[in-house]
Write a structure and sequence with these properties.
Elements (H helix, E strand, L loop, with lengths): L1 H5 L12 H9 L8 E6 L4 H14 L4 E4 L11 E3 L2 E2 L2 H24 L7 H15 L4 E5 L16 E4 L7 H4 L3 H8 L8 E4 L4 H13 L3 E4 L5 E8 L2 E7 L4 E7 L4 H19 L6 H9 L8 E4 L3 E5 L4 H14 L4 E6 L7 H8 L5 E4 L10 H12 L4 E3 L3 H12 L7 E6 L2 H10 L4
Parallel strand pairs: 1-5, 1-6, 2-5, 6-7, 7-8, 13-17, 14-15, 14-17, 15-16
Antiparallel strand pairs: 2-3, 3-4, 9-10, 10-11, 12-13
Helix pairs in contact: 2-4, 2-5, 3-9, 3-10, 4-5, 7-8, 11-12, 12-13
Length: 436
């Protein structure tokens, strides 16, 4: 079944319209309206925040659906019910259930001279149908790209969350951060509540204008809510968060970095709004949920001796947040990077952020046609790092092995390896290093 879906247009080739998904959902009886929805967009932090929202809702006893992308190990991860990826049998049954309706809309599209549903659009339909069939109380839905025309935007989010907005996917979203912000603000629905991460002043103005036009309530980080305090702890950090309902103190979260604290704040407030309209949640329930928070592929330790970290940062803003967290949470004496990027990204920007942190860099590539060839990325890396600090190794396993060797070559303790630049590269590294 997965191979059959893969024959469709891949998710990185976009036709900016949700018309096909809307038509299939109408034929299915609009399953996306069978439950409440928390809808998330932004440039970085969407998946981590989605996972935190879902975990908080489950700790409150609600049955949840979660739709995120891309997957790290198995495609089932994209559609989770009660925190667990749907099993193979459910995947197959759901696909068979929706396929006749997908094919009807494919035929309509062909008559209009338009493309059939894409890989991503089929998964959106499957997720909405699986959630309705479960049934779930709340679906936590991450956009695939942008917002206004994204396939997920056929759902009406009771709560919209917009994480920090920066430059990414310019060929689809626009050449300026303001254009991108306008597209992302498209998930805000009439009368909904928007939980808005701290943004640059001009980006915030664009988003607030859209929210005002739609009569949405806006909750802003730095104005209405905030991370009051954050202390590095063994295995994570201890947070004090000011939500709408009050201050939540001494919350341990086993994730690193200021960006994860920000994600936690947005998740907490989204759940406050959804469950109580903004009143306080039970502190013990909140603490239990965050204590069990996870974010695979985000500053994740996948090996020790030496420490090997993976992080899916794939744009300069994500790399900047990651680097700040590295300095705070880890005390590496010598860190070597294994870096591969997709061809449509900003390699110079990413490498420039990484350069001060890495003693050396091993340039490689993920096993996908979208990846920038290692030799091409290597040429760019030489311009940023200098020839003596750059190694080019096309195969990931050999690249990791060389990075480990180079990390341990000059220090007895404090050596580390960082695999980053692409979530697809990180996914392959996790499998290579035995992570489920």
């Amino acid at each position: 079944m997965y191979r059959e879906i893969l024959r469709r247009t891949p998710e990185h080739e976009i036709d900016p319209s949700n018309r096909r998904v809307r038509e299939v959902c109408e034929l299915l009886g609009d399953p996306q309206r069978a439950y409440r929805v928390v809808h998330l967009t932004g440039t970085n932090g969407k998946t981590s925040t989605s996972r935190m929202v879902e975990r908080l809702l489950r700790e409150h006893g609600l049955r949840t659906g979660r739709f995120t992308s891309p997957h790290l190990t198995r495609v089932n991860e994209r559609i989770a019910i009660d925190g667990e990826p749907i099993d193979d049998a459910t995947f197959v049954a759901t696909y068979r259930d929706v396929l006749p309706y997908v094919e009807m809309v494919d035929a309509r599209s062909a008559e209009r001279g338009e493309p059939q549903l894409s890989f991503f659009e089929v998964f959106v339909v499957m997720a909405f149908a699986a959630f309705a069939d479960a049934p779930v109380d709340v679906a936590v839905v991450e956009v695939g790209m942008g917002g206004s025309w994204d396939a997920t935007n056929v759902a009406d989010g009771d709560v919209a969350v917009i994480t920090p907005v920066g430059m990414d996917h310019e060929q689809w979203l626009g050449d300026s951060v303001l254009d991108i912000a306008a597209v992302k603000a498209g998930i805000v629905k009439d009368g909904a509540t928007l939980v808005l991460a701290e943004q640059s002043e001009d980006v915030e103005a664009v988003i607030l204008q859209v929210a005002a036009e739609r009569g949405a309530r806006v909750v802003r980080e730095g104005v209405d809510i905030s991370v009051v305090d954050r202390q590095v702890a063994v295995g994570g950090q201890v947070l004090t968060l000011r939500g709408l309902g009050g201050v939540y103190a001494d919350i341990f979260m086993p994730l690193h970095g200021a960006f994860q604290a920000q994600n936690a704040l947005l998740a907490l407030v989204a759940v406050e709004v959804l469950l109580t309209g903004g009143a306080a949640l039970d502190g013990d329930v909140v603490g239990a949920a965050f204590d069990d928070a996870s974010s695979p592929g985000r500053l994740e330790v996948v090996r020790s001796s030496p420490t090997v970290l993976v992080d899916g940062a794939h744009n300069p803003a994500g790399a900047t947040a990651m680097v700040a967290s590295l300095d705070e949470a880890f005390a590496f004496e010598r860190l070597v990077g294994v870096v591969g990027v997709m061809a449509d990204k900003d390699p110079e920007g990413i490498l420039s952020v990484l350069e001060p942190e890495l003693a050396e860099i091993v340039v490689t590539q993920a096993g996908t046609a979208r990846a920038m060839p290692a030799d091409e990325l290597g040429q760019i890396a030489v311009e940023v790092f200098g020839e003596d600090r750059v190694h080019v190794v096309e195969r990931l396993d050999a690249a990791v092995a060389l990075a480990v060797e180079r990390a341990e070559s000059e220090v007895e303790r404090g050596a580390g390896v960082l695999v980053t630049g692409s979530i697809l590269l990180v996914a392959e590294a996790r499998v290579l290093l035995g992570r489920p």
